[in-house]
Specification:
alpha+beta; Nucleoside Triphosphate Pyrophosphohydrolase; globular
Length: 142
Amino acid sequence: MTSTPLEPAFLEVTCAVIMRRGKLLLAQRANNGLWELPGGKAEPGENLGDCLLRELQEELAITVQVGPCLATQEGLTPDGLPLRLHAFACRLNGQSPKALEHRALIWREPGQAMQLDLCPTDRALLERLKSSGGLDNSGHGW
């Protein structure tokens, strides 16, 4: 009897697509300087929306309204582990984000964002969202 390799378990990661006046919020990682959409890893059994709310509060000191999932992108962590990045449309609840765990935060137009040194999975996700119109707040339907 032959054994079938199990599908590797994915690290489930959430990220927020927060737009303001046509610009996207991006965060620079403290550990390697790469840019990413803000968010983080889901705890075992944690709802993805709850994960995103928790991560944004912990890392940026903000609360948001979490809208629809715009896209999911599979990729690898810097250590080569499989990850699944879930991007949600989010609206700020009036606060200004603070870089509590990041080197910096910036607002960039989507085209300008693609010129940054982005995490590979975030880059692939942003390319998909840009080509599909997912970075247009008016298209989120909420």
